[in-house]
Amino acid sequence: MANGDPTNPTRPPDVRRPLQFRLRTLFGSMAGCALVFGLLNWLGVPPGTGLVILAILVVSVVAATALLVVIAGPKGRAFGWPI
Is 6 contained in some domain? Predict the structure, then answer.
C-alpha cells in the first residue's frame, strides 16, 4: 500500500516540512560574521575593505540560496513548499 493511504493505519502520510532556518543556524551565522569582522579588525584591515568583504558575503549567500531554490524548485512545489 502507498503512503498516505487511509486504509493503512501503520504508515503515516509523507509530510515534509518547508525549508526553514532554526535559531541555532542564525546564531551560527552571526558568530561566523563576528569572527570574520573580528579577525579583519585584529589584522588592521581598513573599514572600506571590510565593507567590500561584507558585500561579497551577502552576494554569495543570496547566490547560494537562489541556487538551492532552483535545484529544489520542482520538488519543493510538488510538496507545497512556498518557493
Answer: no
Which grid coordinates are listed for 74?
520542482
Q: What is the largest CA-CA distance in the chain?
A: 68
Looking at the structure of the chain, the number of domains it has is 1
Q: Is the whole-model pTM more than 0.85?
A: no
User: Which residue type does 33 have?
Assistant: C
* 60 assigned to some structural domain: yes
Phi/psi of residue 20, nearest 5 degrees: -155, 160
C-alpha cell at 46: 581598513
Residue-range definition of the domain harbouring residue 51: 46-83
| pLDDT digit string, tens, across residues 43-54 | 999 989 988 988
